[in-house]
Amino acid sequence: MHVQFNKRTITPIANKYQDKKTGQDKVSLKATVLSPVQYTLKPTPGMMPPEQIQAVLLECAENYQEVEIEFVERQTSYGAEMQIYSIKPLMKKNP
To answer: I need a labelling partner for 45 at 20 to 30 A (CA). Which of 22, 52, 55, 57 fits?
Structure first.
């Protein structure tokens, strides 16, 4: 079986919040693609560990840096979601 992933360049957005039920600090990762569609980003086990994908997304969100992702898009009851299997930070463009 062969699975083909899509590739896209995005700029991740990280929103930190506290879970009201558990009191734990959580992070919501999102990206806006072809405004105004916003996708939830879900680091998924695959070519890289989810923890590593999330760490790269958080760092790039803080630095407003674009990344290239390999993902599968799906529709959930909460909206559009990108399941990310691989990520590569891109060099910042000089203004």
So the answer is: 22
